[in-house]
Structures are given as C-alpha cells and as structure tokens.
Amino acid sequence: MPGTRTFDLDLLRCFVTIAETGSFTRAGDRLGRTQSTVSLQIRRLEDQIGRPVFVRTPRSLALTPDGERLLGPARQLLRLNDAALAELFEPDMTGRVRLGVPEDFATAHLPGVLAAFAKAHPLVELEVTCDLTLNLLDAFHAGRFDLVLVKREPSAALEGMRVWREPLVWVARDAGAAAGMACVPLVVSPEPCVYRKRATDALDAMGRKWRVAYTSTSLAGARSAVHAGLGITVLPREMVPPYLAAVSSLAGISGDHDLPPLYDTEIALIEAPGLSDTAHRLAQHIVAALERGE
Fold first, then answer.
1. What are the pLDDT tens digits along the chain (294 aa)?
2. For the chain, what are the domain ranges?
3. Which end of the chain lies in a sparser environment, N or C, as judged by fewer CB atoms within 10 Å?
4. Is domain 168-263 annotated with CATH 3.40.50.1010?
5. CA distance linking residue 179 with residue 78, whole number of Å
C-alpha cells in the first residue's frame, strides 16, 4: 500500500469494536450505529486495504489472518488518537466506575494499574469488587458493573476482549507434599472455575485419579489449605507465594507418573452497553497498561 495513504480512524474503530464484541450487532449497539452501517464500514475498510478482515458464517465470526495482523496496530492508532484528543479537550474527568475483577488477578496485576489511573484522574471514584468469575458475570449482566475482568478459556466464544494470558502451574506445600498418594487431592474453587476445570481435565487426560479435598471461594483460603497440606492447587505462576512451591511435576503420586502440563488461560475485559466516557477511559487505560506489562 503506498505510503501516501492513511487509515480512516472511524473504520478502524468499527473494526476493533467488532473484534472485541464478536458481533456486528453488538458493535453497532456500542457505536450507536445500525448493523447495516457497521457492515458498510467494514466493506469500506476491506476495499481500502484490498483484503478481507473477517470471515462470517451464519453462526460464527472470526478474524482473517490479515485481520489478526491489523488488530494490534489499529488499537494503537485509536489509543494515540483518543489520548491526543483527551489531552486537548478533556476536562477534569469525574464520575463513578464500577469494576469487577477476580481476586487473584486484582491482587497481582491491578493495584499499580488502578493507582496510575486514579493519579491521572483524581476526581473519578473507583468502586472495585473482587469475586469469582461466575458471580462477576451474573452481576455484570444484572447491570451492577460497568466493566468486568473475567477468566476464560482461550478458545471460549465469549464477549469481551482478551487483555492478559496466564501461565498456570501446580502449587503444593513443598515438592514432596503429595508423595506416595495414589489419588491427587485438589484444592479448588467452586464450579464453574477455569482453573479447576483445567486441573481436572489435565488429570483425566492422562488417566490420573483425583479427588476434591478442599473447596474455597477465596484465594487466601485456597493458599492456606495448600499450606496446611490438605492438597495441591492450580494458580497463575505470578500468584504463587514464597511459602508454597510451584512445581511442574510431583514425583511419587502413584508410581513414577508426573502431573500433566497445564495450558494457559486468559483474562478478558467486558464493557457494559452505553458505557460512560469515564468508564471507557478506564477500560482503555487497563488494556494499554496490561499490554505494556505494567
């Protein structure tokens, strides 16, 4: 594409919104446009770059390889544009933003991110609630949150946009805490839980016996149970405290077999329809900060 051409930011915003919501209809609702207008804008974008960005079927919507390549740069362009406009025209931002987030993710990653936002916008009231993903989603759909961060499987066809990928590890009191046990004792959150499902699916896939030894609704409770020797659990690598052991295998659990590898999970950000400018600014801040690894 010749260097004299430039992207139409309205078309890029439409493209990014569709990618984030997973639907032309939901994108139209967020942008205040009809589905036909959204479809027309995507056709214009595809004409501009000379290649398709979405693959559509009656039941699914996916990015093409070219769409995947465009998504990151498109987000960067929009953030630069919005930041420049805010710098020039945005008055002191006010209002309340209700954010729901899983406890472990809030503990590990969000304090610095939210502190930076609060420093930049001191008149904004942040109301942050930590809970299980299931409860967060229920409350979000009941209208009690403006934004939620939720755990999900990477392949999940859910609303929202991925903002973080988490490597998971097995966690025990020490490397030999479960030695000699024929059945793996698990410390888990109540169902449905991505980490719980990841652990049981991995054990089932290799034919390992397991049992739920302890169920806790809180991160602190799960850590305490593991520390007391009640069982092992699955946590993001960065959430393992120094008094517990992150291990890739636990030799001695039923013969010479190791525990299976654990695949990554991810955190997605979901925005409520009709989001206020203040809440949308926080969403942009979270996405940008996590992409920078802050």
1. 455 678 899 999 899 888 877 788 878 877 778 888 899 999 999 998 999 999 888 777 888 999 999 988 898 888 788 777 766 666 577 889 999 998 878 777 788 888 888 877 888 899 999 888 888 889 999 999 999 998 877 665 556 777 887 788 888 888 766 566 788 899 998 887 888 888 898 888 888 889 999 998 888 888 899 998 888 998 887 778 888 877 755 444 444 446 788 888 788 899 898 888 889 889 888 887 777 654
2. 9-87, 95-164+266-291, 168-263
3. N
4. no
5. 53
How far apart are the C-alpha atoms of 139 and 137, rounded to whole Å?
5
pTM of the model: 0.62
Which run of H or of E encompasses 266? strand 265-271
Burial class (CB within 10 angstroms; exposed 0-12, middle 13-18, buried 19+) of 49: middle
- 226 SS3 class: helix
Domain 9-87 and domain 168-263, same fold? Reply is: no
Specify the fold of 9-87: Arc Repressor Mutant, subunit A (1.10.10)
Residue 141 to residue 285: CA distance in whole angstroms: 23
CB atoms under 10 Å from CB of 246, counted, come to: 17
